[in-house]
Amino acid sequence: MPTLVIEGSQWGDEGKGKITDYYAQIADVVVRSQGGNNAGHTITINNEKFALRSIPSGIFNPHIKNILASGMVINPKQMLEELHGLEARGITKYNLYISNRAHVVLPYHELLDGAYEKYKGDHKIGTTKRGIGPSYSDKANRIGIRMGTFIDEEDFKESLSETLKIKNAELKMLGLEELDLNTIFDEYKIYAKEIKRYVCDTSLLIEEEIERGSKILFEGAQGVMLCLDHGTYPYVTSSSPTGSAVPLNCGIAPSYINNILGICKSYTTRVGEGPFPTEIESDIASYIRERGHEYGTVTKRPRRVGWLDCVELNYARRVSGINYLSLMLLDVLTGLDEIKICYKYEIDGKEIDYMPATIKELNKVKPVYLSLKGWDEDISNVKSFDKLPENAKMYVRKIEELTKASVALISVGPDRSQTIKIKEIF
Ligand code: IMP
Hints:
Layout: E1 3-8, H1 16-24, E2 29-32, E3 41-45, E4 48-52, E5 65-68, E6 73-74, H2 76-88, E7 95-99, E8 103-104, H3 107-120, H4 132-140, H5 147-150, H6 153-173, H7 181-195, E9 199-200, H8 202-211, E10 216-219, H9 246-250, E11 259-265, E12 268-270, H10 283-291, E13 304-306, E14 308-309, H11 310-320, E15 324-328, E16 338-347, E17 350-352, H12 359-364, E18 366-373, H13 390-403, E19 406-411, E20 419-421
Parallel strand pairs: 1-10, 1-11, 2-5, 2-10, 5-7, 6-8, 7-9, 11-15, 14-16, 15-19
Antiparallel strand pairs: 3-4, 12-13, 16-17, 16-18, 19-20
The chain binds inosinic acid.
């Protein structure tokens, strides 16, 4: 199968970086299609940890073409820092391509992100404050600056001067200082000069690669429940991380997508505010948080922890086209006597098996659990499904039954080698 989409099937942080890196070994092209440096992918190579934000996970392999597609919002300053950081650690041979239609994140976006959060008070979203929402708002409002404009000094200055009039009015209204056109321009034109060599029409490039029969990996950021359309709105990000959005975000035909692999933890986590039906706050939550190192890659916040929610996973499968699952961090559950799995919700005395649309309803739902027996055996070096303890196998089969998706991979540790392959999908 020449194309594979990797997407988060929960609230982000499912371990997409590891699986992207796993498949990147056999990929020719790795594409990031949406989001920006709100994402944080951690990849472990030979015991060395790398945290990526905007750069695709194929960057470590000099044969891979890494593409930042048109659906992304890119902070040039941060992206160059990330690139220089990789270079300082010996990653000097890479292929990078940036869409001329991707939007640029500028200093006022970050300031406005912080200001909106402050004004929302108790209703704040808990954003990463990287300016992602304000940047996508400008795109929808048709006052955003795209890469093609950014790398042309004259066009950039003209667009910036137009946009800044509106942005300064907004900053002033929110009680912040106005920004100076020349200060931003003088700093950012230097970044633009460096970035220019990477900018091209990536839609053309991806289609050429598909026609040539290259293996293409679409690397998702965030997760389905953070989707602007299908997530727990308004507690979501400002783009769509679903597999079904990949063609739009990359400028390619939907028929080019072969498989969509949903990455899910063996339990659930969430950072930021918003409903989380299976959240737990007991000692079990601390046990999982410590064993799973559940602290944010970008913001270092402790992640909220809960049992696996198969109502949510089944919903994610339906709205985003997932046909396979990769079950992550199964080893973290080792040592628990009982493992719970949510298969229905109860709301106002009624049982339902779908996700309600409103926050009011989502805040009311109570998870209905199945209880399964845990296992004590160390599974971190298990290499095949057959060798897993019986209770772990039963857990995996139950997830398949409840989500209607087959489990293609199981991850039992952070290293590439700690991955059990069940099905060939790429
Ligand atoms: P924003 O994307 O910074 O606007 O944040 C909106 C919401 O999405 C917040 O709840 C963030 O914590 C969450 N979010 C954004 N990116 C990620 C991610 O990569 N992993 C997990 N949560 C994320």
